[in-house]
Write a structure and sequence with these properties.
The complex is a heterodimer of chains A (318) and B (233). Chain A has 318 residues and is an alpha+beta fold. Chain A is 21% helix and 21% strand. In chain A, the strands form two sheets. In chain A, strands 1, 4, 5, 8, 9, 10, 12 and 13 form an eight-stranded mixed beta sheet that branches. A five-stranded mixed beta sheet of chain A has the order 3-2-11-6-7. Chain B has one domain. Classes of the chains: A alpha+beta (318), B mainly alpha (233). At the A-B interface, helix 4 of A face helix 1 and helix 2 of B.
């Protein structure tokens, strides 16, 4: 079989770093000037800056698992983010995430598996075919987008780690860099952010390790350099900027469940029939639209995933 | 302060108080809000309601502490602006959250739309506690806005008017609970308003206890100066 390989060149080797950083500073300065020129107080809503465009990813194949719905534009996806490590307002990640250093990033694989190791992101991608996955994305807060992710099936990577029979769950630990992440000064969540999946959920073909957006390297505010996406679950399950993957026998305690167990569970499957204790999940606002849409069971991926939860009480396992 | 100076200042305060809504309209029209502008408008109008409630609640303590009694002449205006922003907040919610989520079986312009919207708002107020609280907070402002005229002060009599307008304490407390309850996790902002409201109400509680010990005389509202010469029946 012929396997297309992604480029082995690291992003740091392409553009001279000084030039790259200068460019960022320039964009920052330009943004600040524009904001100042616009004047008038509420800098809060003023300061969102779409991510600068990054390196193009090569040899991306389309996937039959993609939706045919129209993706939200780059500016929506890179200025409206929940990434609390960079602050609790949705525009803050677009301002602060650029400080995150993603060069030479490693993901440590640990726990119930044979191949415990530290992996460079480049090595995780080596030999894999990058796929575009245009997915619906539903936030637990009641809004949604359509996002053209680029990544590889998580299952492919899991197989290379050779989990043992004891591995029932997979736990993702995400970056905790107090110097680069101003949001972690707040104790709104217990850091580092942790998420987890049951093994069969993690192995599901819809679950992807994402490294790109719109055929480009993933912007920092979207969880660069590597994150996970499973489109039938609420967005907070999609661990960003992953630094550790651990195979465990026991169900991991994910951060939001830890913070408010009565409101956020382990499964967090999109379900219009199970309301959040404080608000309804029956409808959602697609970003860019006025009228709200009916939220679909498992975010519209019911046919693919419902067998995972056969016989389970989804009201209890929210 | 002369009456003339107060008049001029009132114009300034009035224009300044329209600033937030003017900014929102401008930002919405020129694309300076986030990709979810309806959520921004809902949040901003809500926060400005709370701010105006705090400003209004701060006037009496400030007067007592600074002796700058002319401040009282601005209280009706700031109070009415709290009601104004509160009404905008409720309206935004009704449109962006409720109306936008309706089915339109007979098209959008239909009697069933009105009926369904009323039912949807009613059900939501009944079902979701933080909406119940928020709506109640808005309701407490309605009688205050209606009785805000000099004529109403005269008709009710200063003492009764004063008693009625203590409802604004409830508005402040309910407003803070509403805000606290709706945030997902980070309570740092609602906490600020909780502290401010607690401080402003605490000041009153302290004065009240002092009065009961007979150290002070309670204040009674009077109609604005210009009308004062008219005989009180």
């Amino acid at each position: 079989m012929f396997i297309k390989r992604p480029s082995d060149i690291r992003s740091s080797e392409i553009t001279d770093k000084k030039l790259y950083l200068n460019r960022r500073q320039f964009i920052q300065a330009a943004g600040a000037t524009a904001a100042a020129a616009a004047g008038l107080g509420s800098a809060m809503l003023e300061a969102a800056t779409p991510a600068p465009h990054g390196r193009k990813l090569e040899n991306i194949s389309k996937s039959p698992l993609s939706t045919t719905e129209k993706p939200n534009p780059w500016d929506h996806i890179t200025t409206y983010n929940n990434y609390y490590e960079f602050g609790i307002d949705k525009d803050l990640p677009s301002q602060y995430a650029r400080n995150l250093k993603t060069d030479n990033w490693t993901v440590t694989v640990d726990g119930e598996c044979n191949k415990k190791a530290s992996w460079h992101v480049e090595d995780i991608l080596k030999g894999e075919i990058l796929e575009e996955r245009i997915y619906r994305h539903r936030c637990v807060e009641g809004w949604s987008m359509v996002i053209p992710w680029v990544g590889i099936p998580l299952a492919n990577f899991i197989k290379r780690c050779e989990p043992t029979s004891k591995a029932k769950y997979i736990q993702f630990t995400t970056a905790y860099e107090p110097k680069q992440m101003p949001g972690v000064r707040s104790n709104v969540l217990r850091w580092p952010y942790v998420e987890g999946l049951r093994m069969d959920e993690a192995m599901h073909p819809l679950t992807v390790l994402v490294v790109g957006l719109y055929d480009e390297v993933l912007p920092n505010q979207n969880g660069a350099p590597i994150r996970v996406v499973m489109p039938w679950k609420y967005g907070f399950k999609h661990a960003k900027s992953i630094v550790q993957i651990k195979f465990t026998e026991k169900q991991p305690l994910n951060s939001w469940q830890d913070q408010a167990p009565s409101e956020y569970g382990f499964y967090a499957n999109v379900n219009p029939q199970v309301d959040h204790p404080r608000w309804s999940q029956a409808t959602e606002r697609r970003i860019g639209e006025f009228l709200r849409r009916k939220t679909l069971m498992f975010n519209g991926y019911q046919d693919q995933v419902q067998s995972l939860y056969a016989g389970m009480d989804l009201r209890k396992n929210y | 302060m002369t009456l003339r100076a107060v008049r001029v200042l009132k114009v300034f305060v009035f224009v300044a108080a329209l600033g937030p809504v003017a900014w929102l309209v401008w930002a919405a029209l020129t694309g300076h809000l986030s990709p979810n502008p309806l959520s921004d408008v809902t949040n901003e109008t809500g926060v400005w309601t709370l701010r105006f409630i705090c400003i209004t609640l701060a006037i009496t303590p400030l007067r007592r502490l600074t002796g700058w009694n002319s401040l009282i002449r601005f209280r009706r205006m700031t109070g009415l602006f709290a009601f104004f922003y509160g009404s905008l907040h409720f309206l935004t919610y009704a449109i962006a959250d409720r109306f936008a989520g309706l089915d339109f079986p007979d098209g959008i312009v239909a009697l069933s739309t009105v009926r369904n919207l009323a039912r949807s708002v009613g059900e939501d107020i009944y079902k979701r506690p933080f909406i119940t609280i928020g709506f109640t907070a808005w309701l407490t402002m309605v009688p205050l806005a209606l009785t805000s005229t000099a004529g109403m002060i005269r008709r009710l009599g200063g003492r009764r008017w004063n008693q009625l307008h203590r409802l604004v304490y409830a508005t402040g407390i309910l407003g803070v609970i509403h805000y606290w309850w709706l945030v997902k996790a980070d309570i740092s902002r609602p906490r600020i308003y909780a502290l401010v409201v607690a401080l402003l109400l605490g000041f009153r509680a302290y004065r009240y206890l002092d009065e009961r010990r007979g150290h002070r005389k309670p204040a009674v509202a009077r109609p604005p100066e210009s009308k004062q010469i008219q005989p009180v029946r």
